[in-house]
Each structure stands twice: as C-alpha cells, then as structure tokens.
Predict the structure of Probable peptidoglycan glycosyltransferase FtsW.
Amino acid sequence: MSAAPGGFGGLWQRLRGGAGGDVPVRSWNSLSSGTPPRWVGFDETLAWVIAGLISLGLVMVYSASIQLPDSPKYSNYTPTHFMSRHVLSVGLAVIAACVTLAIPMRTWEKMAPWLFVAALLLLILVLIPGVGKVVNRSRRWIPLGVMNFQPSELAKMAMAMYAASYMMRKMDVKESFTRAVLPMAIALGVVGLLLLAEPDMGAFMVIAIISMGILFLGGVNGRVFVIMIGVLVSALVLVITVSPEKRGRIFAFLDPWAKDNADGKAYQLTHSLIAFGRGEYFGQGLGQSLEKLHYLPEAHTDFLLAIIGEELGLVGVSVVIVAFFWMVRRIFVIGRQAVALDRVFSGLTAQGIGLWMGGQTFINMGVNLGVLPTKGLTLPLMSYGGSAIIMTCVALAVVLRIDMENRQILRGGRP
C-alpha cells in the first residue's frame, strides 16, 4: 500500500508501521534519496504512554478547574472554560507533533543555532512592557489572541538542540575549558539572566539541567564539569540570598506547618500535603476533591498532581510516576541507540529532551510532595498550559523521529 511521501496522507498506515512494521510505505525523504525504503515505524508503546498521560491530564484538568467559576476571580468563566482551552491546546499540539515527525533530523541540526537565537530574541521581547503579559507579578507570556505563548518553553527545546549541535562541533576540543565549556557557560548565563528577569527560576533550573547534562553526556572533562556545577550552585545561593521573597520560600518549605508559613509562603504546600493525605490509597473518587474548591491555588496547573493524589490516591499517583519513569528511560534508550549508530547530534538531542522531561517532572512532583521548594513548573503533558503542552509534544515528536531514523538505518536504509 503506497502513500504520499509528505504531508498527512497515509498517516494511519505510518502509525500502523509500529515497532516492527513492514508496511511498504515510501519514506518522507525518498524523493531526495532516490530510493524508496520501506517504512519501519517508531516506538508505538512510547506513543501510547504519551497519549495516555495527555488523556489523563485532560480529565484531571477538567476535574480541577470545574469549580473555579464560583470564585469572583473567574466569575465570568464557564465551568468548561479551562478544559475547552486545554482541548484546543492538545489539538494544536497533535498537529504540531505530526508536522515535526515529518522533519528529518539533519534539518533540525542545521536549524539548531538559529532556533537558539530565536528563543533568545523572544526571551528579550517578553520583557518589553506592553509586549509581555504580567501574571502574578511575572512577565512570562506573549499574548497571541487565542492563547499566550511562553518563550521559556521554546528555550528548553532550543537549548537541547543547540547544546547537542555545540558538542558536535566541539568534540575535538571537549577537554578544553576555554574552547569547549566557557562559550556554552556564557550562553547559559545569558539565558539565565533573561529568565531571572521575568522571573522564572523553575525554567532556568530545567534549562541548566538540559545544557549541563548534554555537556556531561558529550564527554566534557569531569573536573571542569564539577567546577561548573559549583559555579551554578553558588549563583543560585547568591540569588536566594539577595532575594527576600525566594529566601522566604526556602525557609517556608523547611517548616511549612509553622503558623506564619502555613498562612503565607507555604500555603500552597500545606494544602497540597492535605490533598495527598485525604487521598490515602485509593482516593476520594474522581471529581470528589475538596482542596480544588478554592483551597489549593493553581490546582489545574502547578499542583495538578495533588488533585490526582486526592481523587485517585496512592494508586493513581504511582501509575503516573511509573509512566513518566518509563517514558524518560525509553527516551534515553533511543538516544543511546542513536549515538551507537554514530548519530551523535540525534542521540544528544534525545537525551537532552529526556533530561528536560525527567528534570521538570521530578521538580514538579517534588514541589507537590513537599520535598522541594515551590517553583512555577507544570507537570509535562498533563497540566493546563497551551505553549507548554505544544512544545512538549513537539519535543517528544522529535524523539519519535530519531527512533524512526534509527530503525531505518538498522534495516539498511537511509534516515
């Protein structure tokens, strides 16, 4: 059965190619290569896990936001307002992922430096008064009419690809601090300054994990890497020291049940812990959360896991944790396979995306469970947020493309 070499034609046949599919569909790149290799599919299990997390996220966003119109702040909204917008975001994310799946990795490799430049320009643009939208004293969004775009989400993907491209170019001098490490450290510093100006400490931590992780996986000198970690930790300590608000959050996190903290900086954390406590093993039942009734702020975004814990209990939270763990592990396996096939850029990009998903998931879950200070980070694939869900799906589509090209090479074809 044949299909068009590009676009969305034959998408169902492509998806059915699966892990071992021998459906004789022409590759998207067959016109340029001159030889039409067989379609070999991608990891269907990974795609289904991603779809499952998105689907559960849709249900829980609706459950966590249905009561918000009872509050004066959202009195003009309908009970389905946030769910409807989230469905729209997921629809756009699926379209963006399908388009991304059609783009060869060699194209991404060429685009990586320019994608990083575009992310920097948008991070500067969002800080301009009148352009960036201020929400809760943070200027992080650019209004686009139907949705708000958050440049820091693009910066995560741009950093993953730029760092992978950078290590490709610096392989011969990766032991040199001045020629390999220092330029990357400067780039990370510039991004960090722009993010802290918003402020968005959570996004900066994720981007730092991505960039430093790729440097480490790319083979940077171990001693130099330890020095970089020391400098980064020192910078974070300095930021916390000079910022009374951030310092207050740290101390509140250490003792959330103190009266002043429970009524102030640790208010979200204490109600998140109450939600988990109410959920016990099997939860109160879907839709039966009390904390979402205006007790727990941002229940449909940063603290969605707490609502999952209250309504679905330890069992539901455990399923989510296992799903994310398997997904991140599988992404790293795909990255290692690409490196073994001498596709270093693709391999490092996949591993950078794995660091992104794993790092952000760990921070969000840690905040919800009270083991990390409160940060404004969503749970990937599940929390409400337009640009976050779109960029996450685009990044995961890149991983599926890498896996697809790996399988093509293993079958003797060209990626």
Summary: The chain has one domain: 42-105+157-410. The chain has 15 helices and three strands.
